[in-house]
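BUG: 3D viewer hangs when loading the predicted structure for this chain

Environment: internal workstation, default settings.
Expected: structure renders.
Actual: progress bar stalls at 90%.

Input used:
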Amino acid sequence: MRKLTYGMGVSLDGFIADRDGAIDWSAPDEELHRFHNQQAREVGMELYGRRLYEDMLTWETADQQPSASAPVVEFAEIWRATPKVVFSTTLERVEGNARLVREDPGEEVARLKAEPGQDLAVGGAGLASTLIELGLVDEYRLFVNPVILGAGTPFFPALERRISLELVETRTFGSRVVYVRYRAR
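Structure tokens produced before the viewer hung:
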């Protein structure tokens, strides 16, 4: 059975975007970007909601920019090669190495987890919230940034029940971002 991970940059107070939707405070430096690239190489399939998928489409051509750094070029290549499932009822089509699913994400993700292969990763708070509430997320990977936003899009949904976690890994980067990885018990 494949594992489903959910990871993103978060503020110290648990938000992935500020009240205006900005995420500029979480832009990775080269060291952190290379770590993200390594993690992305280990993913067998990315799961996206519409909004994050549309934001991530920039990676289809990011490596073609003259100013693209080596980590950006590397991530663009990884991103294009990784299969993606996009959950949306409003998109008409998806591009590149992606397929569109309009049905219930819970059933589709449970089916994907039961298949053999590399682990799955969910991106975006909306889709992740649905999968967390359904008990489908196995691991949480937070990149805690040294900033307090006060409001915005939360990393975790409001839950009806507690989720017990086991700390698996921590790491502090030169940018003072702290990586924490937890496994659901």
